[in-house]
Amino acid sequence: MIMKNHTVLVTGAPTAPVKNSNSPVHKHGEISMSKLFTTVQVGPIVLSHRVVMAPLTRMRSEQPGDVPGNIMVEYYAQRASEGGLIISEATPVALTGRGYLGAPGIYNDAHIAGWKKITDAVHAKGGRMFMQLWHVGRTSHVDLTDGPAPVSASVAPYEGVAFTHNGWVPVSPNRALDIREIPGIVEEFRKGAERARAAGFDGVELHAANGYLIDQFLQDGTNKRIDSYGGSPENRARLLMDIVHAVASVWGYNRVAVRIAPSGKWNGMSDSNPTATFNHVAQVLAPLGLAYLHIVEPRVIGSQEEADGLPPAAAINLRQFFKGTIMAAGGFDPKGAEEIVAKGDADLVAFGRHFIANPDLPKRIRLGLPLNPYDRSSFYGGNAHGYTDYPFYEENKSQHAA
Ligand SMILES: Cc1cc2nc3c(=O)[nH]c(=O)nc-3n(C[C@H](O)[C@H](O)[C@H](O)COP(=O)(O)O)c2cc1C
């Protein structure tokens, strides 16, 4: 989940379709991009293209209960493609890991049936789907945790907001997890992984990016611990590794993925030496045979470009240490995506905002069709508007012809 000060994010919706000006020359109606539309191995799965739907919190689950409902089935089914991969929106593994009312859960068995309808719909279109498992840590509120103070690596005051039944409110003061509580957190992730399996997913991705609990342990701006979970990069990566091993006991390592945001500043994050921290993370994950390592480029802070035109850097750097499958994300357009996979610095590219606005994004990229613009004001919460009503390309054409 990505959320900046919501008043800043809500900028009006653009109205005209944007030209996919980055599309290279077409050959016989098909885009000349080739590598993006070749097969790629993700664990035991062979995908037929490399255009992935990024995890995108949309806050449209049924309330109360955080159960995925029919509108979510429609949304994900619209975005499924033959041989394509979808990563679910971040999904809390515990009531105490929630930060945004409306986000769907996987923290009790009642969530399984709702998600199963979604994975069935995605599979029916020949697609594959991983669930992103989430614990927000300090970015929560006692109304969401049902009482307990939000937890983090250390007491780390934070001036962000959480979305509760009272709307956007300042997060509640957090407390440091006692070392004896850590196995309980790991078990919540393991149970979430087990439920994801029961719900028909093809694998799971751990949300270790964007300033949530695992990232709060990884980066030393929030991790001041003096026990075996704090201090060196090795110690700060210990919670991540404990969770990786626990969820792999359910799935096998080749259906487990990890999302990290090296140098990520989102949610008030910082690290005194992000290169050392994240190089270490890539190095310890490398031998495990994970499905993929998902790397968010620091040129995007959450869902906002930090600076236009910056080239990707994080995936290129970590490729030195991680020889398995790499998925890059953050600020990619079709041309940039083709470039990074053609160079071999990444194997897959996840698209966020473009996938929100273009249910048929892989097809549009393959054929060099124009992309619909996205509407920030309907990113988080609400109804079908800005969710399931973005037009497919054919609908666009007929609208224009009318
Ligand atoms: C509405 C919205 C919700 C998001 N929710 C999540 C999320 O649940 N988990 C996550 O890891 N990243 C989340 N992100 C970040 C995206 O996955 C992606 O990294 C970001 O949008 C940059 O990619 P883009 O430039 O292709 O949009 C979200 C972004 C947006 C715009």
Named CATH topology? TIM Barrel
Structural class: alpha/beta
What distance lies between the first and last C-alpha atoms, to the nearest angstrom?
38 Å
Low-confidence stretches: 1-29
Mean pLDDT: 91
Which CATH top level class fits?
Alpha Beta
Q: Categorize the overall geometry.
A: globular
The CATH homologous superfamily is named Aldolase class I
What proportion of the residues form beta strands (DSSP E)? 15-25%
Percent helix, as a range, is 25-40%
The CATH architecture name reads: Alpha-Beta Barrel
Task: Describe, in plain words, how this protein is organized in 3D.
With 402 residues, the protein is an alpha/beta fold. Helix 2 packs parallel to helix 3. The chain has 14 helices and 18 strands. The protein has a single domain (6-401), classed as TIM Barrel, CATH 3.20.20.70. The radius of gyration is 20 Å and the shape is globular. The chain has an eight-stranded parallel β-sheet. The structure holds flavin mononucleotide.
Could you provide a short overview of the structure?
With 402 residues, the protein is of the alpha/beta class.
List keywords for this structure.
binds flavin mononucleotide; TIM Barrel; alpha/beta; disordered N terminus; 14 helices; 402 residues; 8-stranded parallel sheet; single chain; two-stranded antiparallel sheet
Present the secondary structure layout.
Elements: H1 6-9, E1 26-27, E2 30-31, E3 40-42, E4 45-47, E5 51-53, H2 70-79, E6 85-92, H3 110-124, E7 128-134, H4 142-145, E8 151-152, E9 161-164, E10 167-170, E11 175-176, H5 182-198, E12 203-208, H6 213-218, H7 233-236, H8 238-251, E13 256-260, H9 274-285, E14 292-296, E15 300-301, E16 304-305, H10 314-318, E17 326-329, H11 334-343, E18 348-351, H12 353-357, H13 361-367, H14 393-401
Helix pairs in contact: 2-3, 5-8
Bound molecules: flavin mononucleotide (FMN).
Flavin mononucleotide (FMN) binds at residues 1-2, 54-57, 89-90, 132, 207, 209-210, 259, 296, 300, 303, 329-332, 351-354, 379.
